[in-house]
Design a protein that fits this description.
heterodimer; A: 114 residues; mainly beta; five-stranded antiparallel beta sheet; B: 113 residues; seven-stranded mixed beta sheet; 11 strands; 57% strand; globular
Chain lengths: 114, 113
């Protein structure tokens, strides 16, 4: 079975500081990996996804993530946080075969301090 | 532009009522999903459908059923609402292609009193 673990339910950074949100996955087959963002009272919006092409994936709003098979990780980073980045972030995994639904992590709420 | 529309943003229902949550997508997607979102638990899959009249149970199907009579519409049904079904419900859709993006609606907040 596939699963996702997000380390840290809450992360707080200062405006302009590095953002690092951690995600580790478990999958018996090569996975597809996703990061979604949810702003207050809204649905989820795709930030970026890994589909077995380049291991460093660039997404919207300056975010990027690196797929590391040896560490089973897919951490999300942004060099410089902006106040508008405050939101909840979800990592998700899907298998290449079988069900095409995503399995989500429990989410990390990012706070950005002025 | 991609659009997944959930008919009700906020609902308050009484225990024991039958509740319908409706979702429509305008992208001709084969797959549609219903997730439930609770604090600290992330999103959990209730049901999904990969074709008209086809459905498959997700991780937490108990107390729910679904209906997909048309490709663009996927309904979630709570046969007899209970207070532990108070939650945010998210509908989503995608093409039936490996690794394809799943698009979400804005969510329906359901409170069962």
């Amino acid at each position: 079975a596939q699963s996702v673990t997000q380390l840290g339910s809450h992360v707080s950074v200062s405006e302009g500081a590095l953002v690092l949100l951690r995600c580790n996955y478990s999958s018996s087959v090569p996975p597809y990996l996703f990061w979604y963002v949810q702003y207050p009272n809204q649905g989820l919006q795709l930030l970026l996804k890994y589909t077995s092409a380049a291991t460093l994936v660039k997404g919207i709003n300056g975010f990027e993530a690196e797929f590391k098979k040896s560490e089973t990780s897919f951490h999300l980073t942004k060099p410089s946080a902006h106040m508008s980045d405050a939101a909840e972030y979800f990592c998700a995994v899907s298998k290449d075969t079988g069900r095409r639904a995503l399995t989500f992590g429990s989410g990390t709420r990012l706070q950005v301090q002025p | 532009d991609v659009k997944v529309t959930q008919s009700s943003r906020y609902l308050v229902k009484r225990t024991g009522e039958k509740v319908f949550l409706e979702c429509v997508q305008d992208m001709d997607h084969e797959n549609m999903f219903w997730y439930r979102q609770d604090p600290g638990l992330g999103l959990r899959l209730i049901y999904f459908s990969y074709d008209v009249k086809m459905k498959e149970k997700g991780d937490i199907p108990e107390g729910y059923s679904v209906s997909r009579e048309k490709k663009e519409r996927f309904s979630l049904i709570l046969e007899s609402a209970s207070t532990n079904q108070t939650s945010m419900y998210l509908c989503a859709s995608s093409r039936s292609v490996s690794g394809n993006t799943i698009y979400f609606g804005e969510g329906s907040w359901l409170t069962v009193v």
